[in-house]
Amino acid sequence: MSFDDIKDLLTAKFGNEVIVGEERTGLQPALLIQPNRIADVCLELRDNPKTYFDLLNCLSGVDYGVAANRFGVVYQLTSIPYNLHINLKVSVENDRNEYQLPTFPTLSHVYATADWHEREAYDLVGIFFEGHPDLRRILLPDDWEGYPLRKDYVATEYYKGIPIEYPVQAKDTVEKVSYKVAEDKNPKYQEALKRYEQKIVDASVEDMILNMGPQHPSTHGVLRLELITDGEIVKEVIPHVGYLHRCFEKHAESLTYQQTIPFTDRMDYLASMNNAHAWVMGAERMLGIDKDIPKRIEYIRVLVCELNRIASHLIAIGTYGIDIGAFTPFLWCFRDREHIMGMLEWASGSRMLYNYIWVGGLFYDLPVGFEERCREFVDYFKPKMVELNQLLTDNQIFISRTANVGILPLDVAINYGCTGPVLRGSGLRYDLRRVDGYSVYPELDFEVPIGTGKMGTTGDCWDRYKVRVDEIDQSLRIIEQCLDRLQKELKRTPDFDPRAKLPRKLTPKAQDFYLRAEGAKGELGFYFIHDNERSEIPFRVKARGPSYNNLSVVPVISKNVMIADVIAIIGSIDFVLGEVDR
């Protein structure tokens, strides 16, 4: 079904008063929807058997600028059964009055994943979603003043409005700090915060409130989980994120596409190559040079990305073992990961944050001897995975702690926007390397592992763990095929220049574009708005981190479990807070 077919279907259902127009600039057309009816349109797209758009990939709040005085929301929807994609846009005029925020209907009753995405748009852009069950700030403190992703946000003032100077100049006299008086807000914007505070007060009367984190090894970073418990039974889990928030999107709107690559490395810092690969592919497609990238460069990109995927999964497996109480697998995984870190450092010059994949090429060709050393690692590592399976995967204690725990049904996983091993652990063979066939993945032979409920129930913690173990085997297959090509028909030559295709200026045509790729933890997406063909800086960038969506499902699968099982559930999700908070 084409874009025009979908438009005709919706127009026949709702009429031109609801489907108010379309945008066909760039590579991805979009439908313009009457704001008050966006939920009805999404319900139709989700439930109609001809379309069945069951996955909300990304939701982006947009400030179109002070002169435009217009705010909008952009939705990227996917139909997994039909492999269809569509962009929907809504917008309203707003005079930036703090007492009357731009308002749209919530989609949280249509797609559960909209819950956290709408909270982020409210937090950073100041867009209110009518009917949202819990519209509180999510990445910033509850009393933060202003909305950082608005175009008129004053970046030289920070928390509590204290003015600062950069660089800081020494002064002889000590000045008294004056706090800016906060503007009055519409009381309805504080209703969700008051409901949450009252819930905690009420729960503390008969139940027990426990804080797990943000400084706790089992939360895998600065994550705070607020547990409402009845003895050892967890009644509710309330995640609190944002402790590592760096406002990546704000930085991306003030730097060129090439300059932003080091910032992408710091999102999922355990799989930096995959982040940069996704960002670079988005820029190259908007520039129209994606078909011009030499094959050797594409195979090197896939090679280093799969090495980084293995390193990321080894972290997940090793730390999961230590969460459950097995210390030896942790040491083994870090020992073998060290070999990968050494090779990637050899290629890029950096240990974790590589800045190796550039728009149009690479920072540098692979060092002489890299392919031979990489093949030695593959031969060394294969038997190590057999030993690891004997030690941990088939261990009866480990199985007892993970099988039939944290069961994530497939429909719930899709509704919450879960992707990667979390989604595949629930039994769906959905991998963007296969579905979208980007880079040279269509030329490579590999399988997509899924959870089968072998030790318990499909979608439990053991299944999610086992998918990552099996993915390591498939990544090794991909690496071997890349090495074969790089050492034969694509072998290095003295005149090969990995920077030959780097554009002198990164100035795409004015367009919107959403690029997604299979990161180590799921669908990593970047939504670009480029509005000035003479500028190398995007107008708006939205980063869709898979860890953000995957973490949002934890409260659903952690109800009525033991406190110890919450640790097992968190570890099975394998999130990284740099990607959650961005």
UniProtKB/TrEMBL annotation:
It is a peripheral membrane protein. It catalyses: a quinone + NADH + 5 H(+)(in) = a quinol + NAD(+) + 4 H(+)(out). SUPFAM superfamilies: HydB/Nqo4-like, Nqo5-like. InterPro entries: NADH_DH_suC, NADH_Q_OxRdtase_suD, NADH_quin_OxRdtase_su_C/D-like, NADH_UbQ_OxRdtase_30kDa_su, NADH_UbQ_OxRdtase_CS, NDH1_su_D/H, NiFe-Hase_large. Residues 323-582 form the NADH-quinone oxidoreductase subunit D domain. The keyword Nucleus does not apply. Residues 33-158 form the NADH:ubiquinone oxidoreductase 30kDa subunit domain. One of its GO terms (molecular function) is NADH dehydrogenase (quinone) (non-electrogenic) activity. Its main location: membrane. Residues 179-206 form a coiled coil. HAMAP family: NDH1_NuoC, NDH1_NuoD. This is Multifunctional fusion protein. It comes from Mucilaginibacter achroorhodeus. The gene is nuoC.
